[in-house]
Amino acid sequence: VALLGVNADDLGDSQVFDNDVKSLGKRFVTEHLYQKYKDVSVEGTFVTLSFQDSKLVSYKSNFQPEISIDVKPKISKEQAFEIAKKKEFETIQSKLQSSSSKNSLTLKPEDLKIGKGELIIIPPSVSENRPNPILAWKIYFQLIQQFFSQPIYYIDAQSSSILYNGESVQNFAKFDGAISANVYPLDPTQTEG
User: Fold this and answer.
1) Cα 48 to chain centroid, rounded
2) Which of the chain's ends, N or C, has fewer CB atoms near its CB within 10 Å?
3) What is the pTM of this model?
4) CA 80, 38, 17, 64 torsion: positive or negative?
5) Alpha carbon distance 88, 100 (integer Å)
6) Are 165 and 150 in contact (CB under 8 A)?
7) Can you tell me the mean pLDDT for 49-71?
8) If you ran DSSP here, which 8-state letter would residue 95 be given?
9) pLDDT digits (tens, 9 = 90+) for 120-144
């Protein structure tokens, strides 16, 4: 891994996929590693290595080597959850009040419970005009049964601001669109022709 310019100490959890491609008569082993900085996960970053007959045949990475950030949060996970809980309760109450149909659904603040919370680093992004990494709490709520909702929030661990909120549960009752996948060449020197 050092040969690829990645420090092995900056890689955390991994997944290994062992694929036997019968139509090609070949076996591929792919390892997908996630980046960490001082034992804190760097959101959305990875290194993927694919091997055939113990030889590296493909490499893909969005590893962020320039990460440098204080990983001591100013707010606790519990404080981050309370910030997210307040916002989520207000959002749901607003939706219920503006609903044109007669809705018998109700929600109390105690119905909102934390599912999981973890400290993460959001890497710099040129496209989002964010030149520095951000230390954040990634907060998952437990499933809110009456709304089939499982909110997720990113709370800045230094400033307490809400960086992002959305849903971690997707409604798959209806599916429109296309399916996409990553396709890797058997030979990393191959280019589109």
Assistant:
1) 16
2) C
3) 0.70
4) positive
5) 20
6) no
7) 85
8) H
9) 999 987 667 788 999 999 998 876 6
Pairing of strands 151-156, 162-167: antiparallel
**What is the C-alpha to C-alpha distance for residues 17 and 127, in angstroms, rounded to an integer?**
32
Give the tens place of pLDDT for each residue, 149-158. Answer: 678 899 999 9
Q: Which two tokens stand for residue 74?
A: 């100013």
pLDDT the model gives residue 94: 79
Mean pLDDT of the chain: 76
* Calpha distance 119→135 (Å, rounded): 7
Q: Do 123 and 110 contact (CB within 8 A), yes or no? A: no
Tell whether the model's pLDDT for residue 34 goes beyond 90. Answer: no
Q: What residues pair up with 61 in beta bridges, in sequence order?
A: 47
Return the HEC string of 11-76: EEEEEEEEEEECCCCEEEEEEEEEEEECCEEEEEEEEEEEEECCEEEEEEECCCCCCCCCCCCCCC
Spatial contact of 66 and 42, defined as CB atoms under 8 Å apart: no
Q: What is the pLDDT of residue 191?
A: 42
Structure token pair of residue 72: 């001591």
C-alpha dihedral, 151 to 43 to 163 to 143, nearest 10°: 10
